[in-house]
Input
Amino acid sequence: MNFTSDNSAPASPEILDALIAANKGPQAAYGEDDYTRAATAALRAVFETNCEVAFVATGTAANSLALAQVTPSWGGIFCHPQAHINTNECAAPEAFCHGAKIITVPGDFAKMTGDGLTASLARYPRGPIHTVQPAAMSLSQATESGTIYSVDEIATLADMAHAAGMKVHMDGARFANAIAALNVSPAEMTWRAGVDVLCLGATKGGALACEAVIFFDPALARDFGFRRKQSGHVVSKGRWFGAQMTAWLQDELWLRLARHANAQSRLLADGLAGIPGVRIPWPVQTNEVFAILPQKLDAALRAAGASYYFWPTQGLVPAQAPVNGEVFVRMITSFATTEAEIAQFLQVCRAI
Amino acid sequence: MNFTSDNSAPASPEILDALIAANKGPQAAYGEDDYTRAATAALRAVFETNCEVAFVATGTAANSLALAQVTPSWGGIFCHPQAHINTNECAAPEAFCHGAKIITVPGDFAKMTGDGLTASLARYPRGPIHTVQPAAMSLSQATESGTIYSVDEIATLADMAHAAGMKVHMDGARFANAIAALNVSPAEMTWRAGVDVLCLGATKGGALACEAVIFFDPALARDFGFRRKQSGHVVSKGRWFGAQMTAWLQDELWLRLARHANAQSRLLADGLAGIPGVRIPWPVQTNEVFAILPQKLDAALRAAGASYYFWPTQGLVPAQAPVNGEVFVRMITSFATTEAEIAQFLQVCRAI
Amino acid sequence: MNFTSDNSAPASPEILDALIAANKGPQAAYGEDDYTRAATAALRAVFETNCEVAFVATGTAANSLALAQVTPSWGGIFCHPQAHINTNECAAPEAFCHGAKIITVPGDFAKMTGDGLTASLARYPRGPIHTVQPAAMSLSQATESGTIYSVDEIATLADMAHAAGMKVHMDGARFANAIAALNVSPAEMTWRAGVDVLCLGATKGGALACEAVIFFDPALARDFGFRRKQSGHVVSKGRWFGAQMTAWLQDELWLRLARHANAQSRLLADGLAGIPGVRIPWPVQTNEVFAILPQKLDAALRAAGASYYFWPTQGLVPAQAPVNGEVFVRMITSFATTEAEIAQFLQVCRAI
Amino acid sequence: MNFTSDNSAPASPEILDALIAANKGPQAAYGEDDYTRAATAALRAVFETNCEVAFVATGTAANSLALAQVTPSWGGIFCHPQAHINTNECAAPEAFCHGAKIITVPGDFAKMTGDGLTASLARYPRGPIHTVQPAAMSLSQATESGTIYSVDEIATLADMAHAAGMKVHMDGARFANAIAALNVSPAEMTWRAGVDVLCLGATKGGALACEAVIFFDPALARDFGFRRKQSGHVVSKGRWFGAQMTAWLQDELWLRLARHANAQSRLLADGLAGIPGVRIPWPVQTNEVFAILPQKLDAALRAAGASYYFWPTQGLVPAQAPVNGEVFVRMITSFATTEAEIAQFLQVCRAI
Output
């Protein structure tokens, strides 16, 4: 009953099998190997376009490198206050950009709104040297609240961003969960909707450590190899990234794992909905369940061995916020979560 | 007969077995897991001291993070011109230090000399704001020419560096090969000789991707976690690093693999010594063989399927440099190199 | 009737006279000259402490260099949303810190409150590597709204900042105006109240271009000379800074000029208070007058040759904000503003 | 008899007169003033092209900002080992470029040679991510040894640099002295010969503090205003820069001052040539005299009140280097040096 993070899970067996299979014979170093080539080809097939691809070991590196590619040191990066790049990356994007400024765009459920973007942009006119210049809009899909943008919402925001002279970045640490939920094609949810660069995370979705930075316009990837090398993110035995990504994409493993994770959150949320005193503050759309629990229930669950995080409540509107005697928690399910765990968890809830 | 790099090799089977064993159940993310803890304990045992340890995926990241920890943007980093940080890391150390300057120190066979260090230091007096200030001395053990510093040589250089107000960094991408060659303890070759921070590479020595940054004075590691996170080098599923390093150190696997690699270079060099027209320009001490080959031999070897790199000849003294009709090459052996490959290679040589 | 900025004014005649007097004979370069020494001594006398002093040409440089001295790339800088470092320096503090993050602290009239600081600090716990760490609190005295902190308010905030492990920075672009308004000693308003580093601006107060970075604890200035040199802020003919600052401080010229500037704003505000339809949204405490004007009056003033800026109204509470038919403007008076200009301005107002 | 630096001199009276004349009435801040516009127009006239111009207070800032405009963090900057950017700017170019690497190009008398450039470029092939990429060639005119490149030499090096995909930067801290010596037009010595960006220093040539960054291709100056602002190099009262530069250019004041400075070095060198035991190691072409003096003469000169710097002798060929009993010194003359000073100096020499 560990619901702390999809990062707490191991790798899926298929991924490990692929590593074992790749562990033979010499391969060219620094990403010039056969496995990296195969993974790149697989991504191009999945995204139906001749994108430029590079692999790195962490989501923070992927996001920061991608943003630095499109943001000068005097650039502004527009995103929701809850965006991982704003709250949990220790100012890595700012460091990779050698300055820059993250400018927040409000909206419910961790999703930026068009009106919010318009208002935020108004404070950063193009031209005057005294303020940073709009450079990138970053949206998380799925969001840090487990919600998702529709394809139309992405397209609308992307159009606005482009009109303002910005590039569009998508933090896809849980991209697979969003695709599984929306049931659209990867192309539809990205470049056809206006996304310029995607950070596609496989780690949370079942890999050991594998994130792809995908530039849909190859011209945007100019000199990216140097940027990646200089930040120490070119591994010497590139086959490990290639093997992971290839296996993850093969036979839709990534979608099967994501559907499973989403389904567990669905089960969990549905079960919690029937527990007296429990409130679900916003729609459960992917593999994250946020819940307001009575303290007594929280204590019982933890006593029974369940683990999950208390979550910050700043900025929550009253209807979504805990009151005295309640706690606000986040539970994440992964490819490794079992229905038995969910059942056990709900049994504890019902026994109160 | 692939002698291009020890990076071209796969991982040793023991390392993969450890990954498989670690692939079960939830673990805390971001390096707070049991495997990372075990690996840290293993390193402390091997180095006989309560060092601070952090794991990253690449040698460039390890070196650059370590150097940035002890070098301000106005600092000078003293190293041999052939040092990997100077020649092959795309100015990553400079970027991580936000400026800084690499200052070269001459010496034969890729090893700095004390006289060379004195001369280089003389150009950077302490105090005047117009020049960078001596901050770090970096030595590679083994060097980029496959040679090694004796413990006394390390101690002498380290004393000089400390006297000049610098910290001592060791690039240990091939640390295991050096230990195997010198037959001294890791403690003797590092902190007891004055090394302040070591980048210990397991990747070239049989891991998938695992480098440890080891601060022998824990005070020197202050805030290192933030530096590492901000550069995108904290992987979420830390267990993979922990499992690799633990397996690599267990039962002296690292030394056995290094001894094997060194022995293959020994075999190769001894065999080449008997080939007419072949010259070995400097002592073969670890797992790298540099050789001057007749062009005809080189052509025959490549035709037979051997691969290795032509190597730059700038700065070579005439006695070590190729003349017309000769090529200068580098051959690297690894844990995965077989005696059969060496025998096959030498057979081609002898057949000319 | 130019009230756009105190930057639009020339230099006071006494400053120019000092430059002329200093323009003779050789002087050591790069700040080792007699005039720089004299200015440093004068500042130590004025601040009654053995502070470390360095001169630069711009307020942005002064603020950014000072903040970088106390803020690592993973540090957070806490300030009011209206702070110049947040709104008008093109992310220079972030760039000088190689990352960092400006975290805003709310409060009325451009002044942070203790409660606001507590709330903002709560989002940045010390320890976890995922978020920036509190490093500096920056307060502007006078503020960007022309208001001032009392000595007690400064001391309270500084105590909180120190308790949170932060250093206290004061942006004193209009320090003289604040001193003139509060009628306290420079020592009382700075280091005795807990300020660690002050950026004292003479430019807006009557100099050509002269800002002093003053570290009250000399230990905090360690290596600052290198930081300043590396950013290109060590002028070769240092005498010009020294002569300006010495003249500015001599015989309390700085206070006389500031009192004059403040008095003109007082005259202006008092006059405006009697004009029907004009509202002054917050107390006029130094040399800035913010006013809500009927559009018709604004048009008449501009037609008569008056100049001043329209000012952003984001974040204003309704009582302080313009409604339809009104404009929100900022008017700044300087040492060069004449009573005749104020009278002429008010005459236009009264003639409507 | 102060020959330490042209930075030790005051400003020429004409420059101060211009400041006094500019000290009246309001002007727009941040370089939008009439004086800055006039100076820009004057520079365009002098250089006979529609260049983009920005003013900063120091040569280090000018060079670093110009280089950062054309050099990514993974770029290489090629220059002579004696270049000021390599020896005396505390790694400011590297810091402004966020990394980068200065690569030295050998040559006599502080001048790069074409062969030297070819050899240095050979070590940095375009493409591989492991090494920095050629980005800029920087030449100093006049050089740090007081020598000058002919227009043909500049054009040859610039052609090579362009062919290698680099931009050409000229450090013109003593540009006026070079023009005065070569007697060519500013356009001939810069953009017509292939220079892309010039840092034109007026400070050493008679101003207080005024350096112009001049982009001959306006497209190269894209976003330069943000870069300059973010580094704290946009002064608020821009009129001071504008007034200095306008006065410096007016009626060829800059050339008259430079011719005077050069002539004094000529007088000094000619006089020294007749002193027994004195050697002049290379041609005196502008306003710097390097000399090898008998220690006894040096002592007598200093006793008589003369001042000048001992100069590093590393890298000097034996014919140009001092032996036992000799010292190696640099003497600089400026617009403020008088013939009487030279005569007095030579009198001391002759009296030995």
Remarks:
- The longest helix of chain D spans residues 253-273.
- Chain D is about 40% helix and 15% strand.
